Amino acid sequence: MDASFRRANLEILGNTDGFLHAHVWPRFEWEPTDLVRRPVWLYPRDRWTDKQYALGPQHDPLRTAIGDELDRLRSAN
């Protein structure tokens, strides 16, 4: 785990999807002080498009673990 991890924000917004979905946003100590306590969508646009912040192969194990756990939970019900 990243030692600078601060917390996780959960966000459930009303939208046009016909099902409930949520966003989980990790928050870190290194975030700019003017943004760290505000919604993540207030980050400058370049933070959303800069390749250095994009998901990539290094995230595959986490993505797989999340998918496996969701499959496990679904089959348990």
Automatic annotation (TrEMBL):
SUPFAM superfamilies assigned to the protein according to its UniProt record, in alphabetical order: HIT-like
Superkingdom per UniProt: Bacteria
Q: What's this protein's name?
A: HIT domain-containing protein
Q: Which organism is it from?
A: Streptomyces cyanogenus
